[in-house]
Amino acid sequence: MPFLPLLERKRDGGPLTAEEIAGVVAAFTAGRIPDSQMAAFLMAVLFRGLSTAETRALTLAMRDSGDVLRWPDDGRPVVDKHSTGGVGDKISLPLVPLLARLGFRVPMISGRGLGITGGTLDKLEAIPGFTTRLPADRLQRQVADLGAAMAGQTDRLVPADRRLYALRDATGTVPSIPLITASILSKKLAEGLDALVLDVKHGRAAFMPHAARAAELARGMVALGNACGVRTVAFLSAMDAPLGRAAGNWLEVVEAEEILAGRGPADVRALVLEGAARLLSAAGRAADLAAGRAAAAAELDSGRPREHWRRLIAAQDGDVAAYERRLAAPPAAPCVHELPATEDGVVQDVDARLVGEVVRDLGAGRFRQEDAVHPFVGVDALRAPGESVRRGEALVRIHAADEAAAQRAADRLRAAFPLAAAAPPRPPLVTEVPADAGPL
User: Is 374 one of the catalytic residues?
Assistant: First the structure.
């Protein structure tokens, strides 16, 4: 059937059948629908929405546009985690080896950063020699042997999403909840998962600033994931302040190493344990979330996930000796600059959006998918909300390509750290998804 009548029907708010949606995805992936027409279709979806049935059909058609991984039953559930992204969100790096040690298989397919959101692949590629380009057969062998792999999307895994995401980004149609749902879940369903945990962010630096909108997205993804045969659970987490003390690719790897060593920022550790606990509970391996958190904490503190992390690095061509040397070396950015407080006080807030924009502009992020990133620039030693600081003490440490860039970053970052005599109470980091069914 010609595409134009389908486009016009969706423009006018009419429904599409599963067969029609599958045909559209197949034709677009094969290059038979031009970008101009698909852009108009995406805009129609943004304004008119998709029903639950249409969203399910789109998700499955995108999943089936390429390979779908299959796994033998060896007693280890196949699981993954997805975060909707944020500033300083390095949770996947320590979580994956922890999950492998807890008896799961984790075929994590990750993405690159865009805008102020850092990408897991960019962080991994700051490790000497680490490759994220794994063909499906190599990824499956590694997961079978090691329990985990962390790789990028390939031309054979959900190719429809690769093309659609690039077009959504270029046409301002990213915020559609049905399109977000289909994009996320099509990739995860293609991994052949038994269980999936979703960390859905809300706050000033989140994809969904408002908690109600984040909850709507979470409910839709949970319902659809479960309807497609994957045990799917979700929680909401705050993204008003950066996660942890560091933002920037290598700097976040260093912080992930701290978590694996039993140290590191409390908020990063809490989200690592939350993701593990939710999957332990979903897989029936913990009586409740409290038991799951305790089991995950005991394993994390044993040091075994840290050893497993090095095995994962080596399996993906990383140079473990060079990695260790880089961890022990001084900061690798050409210029390191501290931003001092101009008065005594308590940090009222840390503006994650402003911090993320500065980190992006230092070169750690990108405006377009094809932009290169600098592995060593960013910020660390970030003061957290509620911390006291004395005049002259550092609010943040800036890692830049040159002195001019460091000074520009410092001038902008001062506004991110308002000081006062006392700090207001902080909202909880993690909250549950409200039970209200809500619209998709």
Answer: no
**Cβ proximity of 245 and 380 under 8 Å:** yes
Q: Is 110 a catalytic residue?
A: no
Show the domains of the chain with their CATH numbers.
3-49 (1.20.970.10), 79-323 (3.40.1030.10), 334-420 (3.90.1170.30)
Crossing angle of helices 92-101/249-260, nearest 10°? 30
Q: Any catalytic annotation for residue 337?
A: no
pLDDT at 439: 39
Burial class (CB in 10 A: 0-12, 13-18, 19+), 383: buried
| Confidence bin at 87 (pLDDT 50/70/90) | very high
- Tell me the pLDDT of the chain averaged across its residues: 94
**pLDDT mean over 336-365:** 96
Q: Which of 10, 76, 82, 219 is catalytic?
A: 82
Give, in degrees to the nearest 5, the angle at Cα 104 between 250 and 142: 65
In this prediction the pTM is: 0.93
Assess whether 183 carries a catalytic annotation.
Answer: yes
Q: Select which of 63, 163, 187, 201 is catalytic.
A: 187
